[in-house]
Design brief:
The protein is an all-alpha fold. The chain has a single domain, classed as Plant lipid-transfer and hydrophobic proteins (Hydrophobic Seed Protein, Orthogonal Bundle). Helix content is about 55%, strand content about 0%. The chain is built from six helices and no strands. It has helices spanning about 5-20, 30-35, 40, 50-60, 65-80, 90-95. The longest helix has 17 residues, at about 65-80. It is globular and about 40 Å long.
């Protein structure tokens, strides 16, 4: 009988571990710091630094779940609205410029709730 509680505990832990995440593990601060090297380029104030594309690729690798991708989308939209002189054409083309294929448009009008990993 002492064995049964251990099995139940293991099953609970396994169920929690195997459940798909419903909340993002990525914070907006991570998104903005990861892409901070891109700001001058995206405001027509300088060339595209290699560190920017490193950040774009890193962020893409971090955002592998639907909640993470939605969170990154919301963070990008909120942060982008705070940056004066942002060139939206450069923003939209940044993933492609950095060699990353994003299956949804990068735009202030993107519906972040429609983003998923099933594309």
């Amino acid at each position: 009988m002492a064995f049964a509680p251990k099995i139940i505990t293991c099953l609970i832990v396994l169920t929690i571990y195997m459940a798909s995440p419903t909340e993002s593990t990525i914070q907006c601060g991570t998104v903005t710091s990861t892409l901070a090297q891109c700001v001058n380029y995206l405001t027509n104030s300088g060339p595209l630094p290699s560190e920017c594309c490193v950040g774009v690729k890193s962020l893409y690798q971090m955002a592998q779940t639907t909640p993470d991708r939605k969170q990154v989308c919301e963070c990008l939209k909120a942060t982008g609205k705070e940056i004066k002189g942002l060139n939206t054409d450069l923003v939209a083309s940044l993933p492609t410029t950095c060699g990353v294929s994003v299956p949804y448009p990068i735009s202030f009008s993107t519906n972040c709730d429609s983003i998923s990993t099933a594309v």
